[in-house]
Amino acid sequence: MLVLRSYGALALCQAVLTRCPGRLPAASRRWLSMERYSTQERGRPNTAEYRLYFKNDDGQFISPFHDIPLYPETDKDVDVPAKKSKPNWNKNVFNMVVEVPRWTNAKMEIATKEPLNPIKQDVKKGKLRYVANIFPHKGYIWNYGALPQTWEDPKHKDESTKCCGDNDPIDVCEIGSKVCSRGEVIIVKPLGVLGLIDEGEMDWKVIAINIDDPEADKFNDIEDVRKHKPGYLEATVDWLKSYKVPDGKPENQFGFNGEFKNKDFAIEVIKNTHSYWIDLVNKSDKTDIDCKSVTVIDSPFCCSKEEAESIVKSAPSTGSQSPIPSEVDVWHFLKS
After folding, report:
1. Burial zone of 32 (CB within 10 Å; 0-12 exposed, 13-18 middle, 19+ buried)
2. Whole-prediction pTM value?
3. Which residues contact 326 (CB under 8 A, 6 or more apart)?
4. Which residues, 6 or more positions from 85, have their beta carbon under 8 angstroms from its beta carbon?
5. How many domains does the chain have?
6. What is the DSSP letter of 15?
7. Neighbours of 80 (CB within 10 A)
8. Residue 326 placed within a domain
9. How far apart are CA 276 and CA 270, in angstroms?
10. For the CA atoms of 135, 139, 141, 146, what is the dihedral angle to 10 degrees?
11. Is residue 10 a part of any domain in this protein?
12. Is Acetylation among this UniProt entry's keywords (predicted)?
């Protein structure tokens, strides 16, 4: 079993499997995750050298991929001794790392192959990547990001789609009203999931809502999105299908004929990807994923806080941002 060094963290394997006999009412819990993390920029924004590193509330640099727990903590967890299993009050909500705020175009992502996995802008053929504006949309149409401590295993073939994972944390499309900030850690409840097939790889897209959204109580499953945000799911399919077309790529395909699967299906997918992540960081086998962490102390890749600090210090100094190319604002009209 993997153990986290940070206080009050969940016992990971048990968090995947344990079913809670009861849940505290929301009013009696105070979620801690959103208070616990900060970010530090390095390099010049809008350049290939830009990196966004993460710190926990102890001031330690950490990996957003490996050190931020999938399951958020509450004030109730803090009082539980570190080596005891925490009651899983939060089995249906998850931490999310926001990579791309809604309405923005820069394709930012957790750098899975770099130490401490900072957020960086994706580069293709030497150029920074920006998603195209496809009429009537502007940039990403949700807050887009990933669930920490999950991994879509490229060696695991999905039974339904016969496609293997894309070697990344599982993606999240957060549909709440707030435009989040890059690097923000929020707590979301999943409502469903869409099985995108991207160039032959399985690339699940979890549909979720921030639990702090004013209307969060209205949303408990995928059909609630159809009811309260009509057209949003259809726009999501259209966006994900077409966003690469302006770059000369074919349309993406979907498993299950483009059908959104429900909340229970989504939670099962999340649990599976969490178990793949546990296997990833608990093995000494080399992969192209950098598994360096500060708090996963039973992992062979755990490092000291001093080593983590040296990684960040070696990154380029923060500088003024480079201008965004004017073509990023172009609107693309696709033939139906």
Report:
1. middle
2. 0.89
3. none
4. 11, 14, 18
5. 1
6. H
7. 15
8. no
9. 10
10. 150
11. no
12. yes
Residue by residue, pLDDT tens for the chain (336 residues) are: 454 544 333 333 333 333 333 333 343 355 655 568 999 999 999 999 999 999 999 999 999 999 999 999 876 555 544 444 444 556 799 999 999 999 999 999 999 999 999 999 999 999 999 999 999 999 999 999 999 999 999 999 999 999 999 999 999 999 999 999 999 999 999 999 999 999 999 999 999 999 999 999 999 999 999 999 999 999 999 999 999 999 999 999 999 999 999 999 999 999 999 999 999 999 877 789 999 999 999 899 999 999 999 999 999 999 999 999 999 999 999 987
What is the number of residues in the chain? 336
CATH of the domain at 211: 3.90.80.10
Whether 258 is covered by a domain: the verdict is yes
Residue 18 lies in a domain: no
Domain that holds residue 153: 32-321
